[in-house]
């Protein structure tokens, strides 16, 4: 086999031909589905000359090939089919192909595959080539007509229905689209339906298709969809553009969900919810993902990407939009804190390791490996910075221009930045570095006050990343506020623009102010500033910016935990009293208080220590973090029972943000209580729970203290028939296992009869849960590394995409001590040396080895 080759942005050329329209007929059969395709093609004026026609195609058995009705005798190669220029007319022509494929044996879950008796597709990024011969690239857009023949009762594809009868259905999608947005579903499904009327009066039939029996778990997803559709009309002026909008829930899915035009396909865990089976986090994620996929209808589908290097064009923007939506639906402050927690946990981790890449990468081997936190979450942060720099009005004008100028286009980041430049007059040449340069900038801050003037000096450092040893200064918007020592705000939020490596800003000040820097986390950077615990406690008590208020508490906790780990310090009153004040402050949102009670994560701590030049010891971080929780529990202990009682929700469960915040705080309090009472309160709460949030919350409290075996049995008995709930059962006991037991627990659960490792959700809830158990995965024995590598190698031949994604468990190896680094290096070498390793996993392992 030849070495997989990298694709480079600089090699982009428009396709040789244009596709005027596509007609597909599917005759579905598990091992012998016939796909016939009629493509009307013409030479592309953007590529002058007379060119071969190259069609992508993989694992297709070619049955017939005709050009303008005449049979052609050509043989495909492993990746496609070339029709030599000599055989092609210079005028428009019609190409007809018929192929046979085998959905039932398609374990990669890409292309057309089967999931428990139903047919479904996943085409992004390059799955359509596993369905038929086609120019499988996003800048080739065409209207599709689809006919499905099957005895299954529900037959769906993109666009509007165009007729159906016994054993067949036809669909027409009038909107030109790239092949990656194609979708087909066939199965024994039932719909949860609702009507929707758009702002201009178009009637839309909304359907969520699920297996019989699941239809009573669709109400929240439907409600989220309706709110998303309405929100996009008011916030962005974007209406839906077809007569139907279908969503299908699928149990076997590599990712979260997919925005296929008019036919979104979802991992069932992001659709199905009832109070008994879904936690508050599940409800929030369903709302966000339903919105995300819906918002893609404009940002992704109507305006798509020219090539896959531009992936952030649709993903960064759509994440930004779904974050705005969730903030509007819930609380902006809480949403921002949660988003930053996630950004730091996933994207900073990626940006600081061997897998770092720019928001817009310039080369890849396997594009599926670039659906990353950097493209998605940092891509959204970059848009947030743009919005801050040009203001809300400038942003609105730029977006209006984007939609009018590029509707129907396959666009680039250059196009995106041009609409901002044209709508606002702002030069974005330097800003563009955020798209082209990897790495998290570090910003150092010094302050000076001379009795009259207060001076803040910033210095930015842009660290080297793979392939990018040196980089220039970035445009960094720093939202700043200044407080008086009495807590009054003397400078309301003001955006400073850093554009140079070192820069100072001066403010008149009769008294020395306390600065609140990087309010709302106005840029994805690491702020380096020596701050006393007193000042942090002051900001936690007085900052008017809720994000920085939380940030002050978090920094206080991280400073303390770092000192506990490095020189055996103990929690003192500065931290304990500050947390107590927030915990019991009834004027604050309970969701905010719950976040303030959350201790720094172990992986976060390891990254921070590493950043400070200290080699993190996972076992020690684990035990010191525990000691920290115990100290806090003792400090708050006497007041916890009253808090737990006061937060009990009377009446039936509602999934709204207010109720969810109260439950979150109640469970945080219960978790501390469980460190004091031997798990009594949690065991009681477990048995009293009437919703999954409290059931899981109480179970975790027990597991964290080495308890809960009886409750695990009760849980398993009650939920053994529910896959999505059983995923939680697997994941929780591994993620919360004692570090010395995590590997053995995982290994034992891989032998459980319900460990269906070919199902991505189940694989993630077992193998992924081990890599989420920081001290367990990084156990000095190396057992965690070995077990994860074993399972990745087992999954890789069947499902390379999921194996490759999960290999990021190893991306942090450079942080750790020489022994651990050697253990990881051996596992990476073992994987690299495995014959037949996929291009997906091969690329990831290669990049991690450096
Ligand atoms: N485009 C999908 C989304 O972000 C993600 C996805 C990528 C799903 C690739 C499947 C395969 O909404
Ligand atoms: Zn997306």
UniProtKB/TrEMBL annotation:
Listed SUPFAM superfamilies: Leukotriene A4 hydrolase N-terminal domain, Metalloproteases ('zincins'), catalytic domain
> In this protein, which residues make up the domain named Peptidase M1 membrane alanine aminopeptidase?
220-434
Please report which protein family the annotation says this sequence is part of.
Belongs to the peptidase M1 family.
Reaction catalyzed:
Release of an N-terminal amino acid, Xaa-|-Yaa- from a peptide, amide or arylamide. Xaa is preferably Ala, but may be most amino acids including Pro (slow action). When a terminal hydrophobic residue is followed by a prolyl residue, the two may be released as an intact Xaa-Pro dipeptide
Give every Peptidase M1 alanyl aminopeptidase C-terminal domain span: 534-848
Record gene name: pepN
Which GO molecular function, any one, fits this protein according to its record?
alanyl aminopeptidase activity
Q: Taxonomic lineage per UniProt? A: Bacteria, Pseudomonadati, Pseudomonadota, Alphaproteobacteria, Rhodobacterales
Please state every residue range assigned to the domain named Aminopeptidase N-like N-terminal: 98-181
The UniProt entry's coiled-coil ranges are: none
Q: Does the keyword Cell cycle apply?
A: no
Name of the protein: Aminopeptidase N
Q: Which organism is it from?
A: Paragemmobacter amnigenus
Residues annotated as domain Peptidase M1 alanyl aminopeptidase Ig-like fold: 439-529
């Amino acid at each position: 086999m030849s070495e997989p080759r990298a694709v480079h942005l600089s090699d982009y050329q428009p396709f040789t031909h244009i596709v005027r329209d596509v007609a597909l007929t599917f005759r579905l059969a598990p091992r012998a589905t016939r796909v016939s395709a009629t493509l009307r093609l013409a030479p592309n004026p953007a590529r002058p000359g007379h060119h071969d026609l190259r069609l992508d195609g993989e694992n297709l058995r070619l049955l017939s090939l005709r050009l303008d009705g005449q049979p052609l005798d050509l043989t495909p190669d492993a990746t496609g089919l070339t029709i030599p220029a000599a055989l092609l007319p210079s005028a428009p022509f019609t190409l007809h192909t018929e192929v046979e494929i085998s959905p039932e044996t398609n374990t990669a879950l890409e292309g057309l595959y089967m999931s428990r008796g139903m047919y479904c597709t996943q085409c992004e990024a390059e799955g359509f080539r596993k369905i038929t011969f086609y120019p499988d690239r996003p800048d080739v857009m065409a209207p599709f007509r689809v006919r499905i023949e099957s005895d299954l009762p529900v037959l769906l594809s993109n666009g509007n229905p165009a007729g159906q009868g016994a054993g067949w259905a036809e669909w027409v999608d009038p909107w030109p689209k790239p092949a990656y947005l194609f979708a087909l579903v066939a199965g024994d499904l039932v719909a949860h339906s609702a009507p929707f009327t758009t702002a201009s009066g178009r009637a839309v039939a909304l359907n969520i298709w699920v297996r019989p029996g699941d239809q009573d778990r669709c109400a929240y997803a439907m409600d989220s969809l309706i709110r998303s559709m309405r929100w996009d009309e008011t916030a962005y002026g974007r209406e839906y553009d077809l007569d139907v909008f279908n969503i299908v829930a699928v149990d076997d899915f590599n990712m979260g969900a997919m925005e296929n035009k008019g036919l979104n396909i979802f991992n069932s865990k992001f659709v199905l919810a009832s109070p008994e089976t879904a936690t508050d986090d599940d409800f929030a994620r369903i709302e966000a993902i339903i919105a995300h996929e819906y918002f893609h209808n404009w940002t992704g589908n109507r305006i798509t990407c020219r090539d896959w290097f531009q992936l952030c064009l649709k993903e960064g923007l759509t994440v930004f939009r779904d974050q705005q939506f969730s903030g509007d639906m819930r609380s902006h402050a809480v949403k921002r804190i949660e988003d930053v927690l996630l950004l730091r946990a996933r994207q900073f981790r990626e940006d600081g390791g061997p897998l770092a890449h720019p928001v817009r990468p310039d080369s890849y081997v396997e594009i599926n490996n670039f659906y990353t936190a950097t493209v998605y979450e940092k891509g959204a942060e970059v848009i947030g910075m743009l919005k801050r720099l040009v203001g809300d009005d400038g942003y609105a004008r730029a977006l209006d221009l984007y939609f009018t100028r590029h509707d129907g286009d396959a666009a680039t980041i250059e196009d995106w930045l041009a609409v901002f430049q044209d709508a606002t007059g702002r030069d974005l040449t330097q800003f563009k570095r955020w798209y082209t340069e990897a790495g998290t900038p570090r910003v150092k801050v010094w302050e000076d006050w001379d009795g009259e003037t207060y001076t803040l000096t910033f210095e930015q450092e842009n660290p080297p990343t793979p392939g990018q040893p040196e980089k220039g200064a970035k445009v960094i918007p720093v939202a700043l506020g200044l407080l008086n020592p009495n807590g009054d705000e003397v400078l309301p939020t003001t955006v400073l623009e850093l554009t140079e490596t070192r820069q100072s800003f001066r403010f008149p000040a009769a008294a020395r102010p306390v600065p609140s820097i990087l309010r709302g986390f106005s840029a994805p950077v690491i702020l380096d500033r020596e701050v006393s615990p007193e000042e942090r406690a002051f900001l936690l008590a007085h900052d008017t910016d809720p994000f920085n208020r939380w940030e002050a508490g978090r920094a206080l906790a991280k400073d303390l935990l770092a000192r506990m780990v490095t020189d055996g310090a103990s929690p003192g009153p500065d931290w304990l009293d500050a947390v107590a004040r927030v915990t019991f402050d009834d004027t604050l949102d309970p969701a905010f208080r719950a976040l303030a009670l959350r201790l720094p994560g172990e992986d976060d701590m390891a990254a921070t220590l590493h950043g400070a030049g200290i080699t993190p010891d996972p076992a020690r971080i684990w035990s010191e973090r525990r000691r920290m929780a115990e100290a806090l529990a003792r400090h708050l202990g006497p007041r916890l029972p009253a808090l737990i009682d006061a937060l009990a929700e009377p009446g039936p469960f509602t999934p709204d943000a207010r109720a969810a915040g109260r439950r979150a705080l109640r469970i945080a309090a219960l978790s501390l209580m469980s460190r004091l009472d031997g798990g009594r309160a949690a065991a009681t709460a477990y048995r009293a729970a009437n919703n999954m949030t409290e059931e899981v919350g109480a179970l975790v409290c027990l597991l964290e203290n080495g308890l809960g075996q009886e409750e695990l049995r009760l849980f398993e008995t009650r939920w053994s028939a529910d896959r999505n709930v059983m995923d939680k059962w697997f994941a929780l006991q591994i993620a919360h296992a004692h570090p010395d037991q995590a590997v053995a627990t995982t290994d034992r659960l891989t032998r459980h009869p319900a460990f269906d490792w070919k199902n991505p959700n189940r694989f993630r809830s077992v193998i992924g849960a081990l890599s989420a158990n920081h001290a367990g995965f990084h156990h000095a024995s190396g057992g965690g590394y070995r077990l994860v590598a074993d399972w990745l190698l087992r999954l890789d031949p069947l499902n390379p995409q999921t194996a490759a994604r999960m290999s990021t468990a190893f991306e942090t190896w450079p942080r750790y001590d020489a022994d651990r680094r050697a253990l990881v290096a051996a596992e990476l070498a073992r994987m690299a040396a495995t014959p037949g390793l996929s291009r997906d996993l091969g690329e990831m392992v290669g990049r991690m080895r450096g």
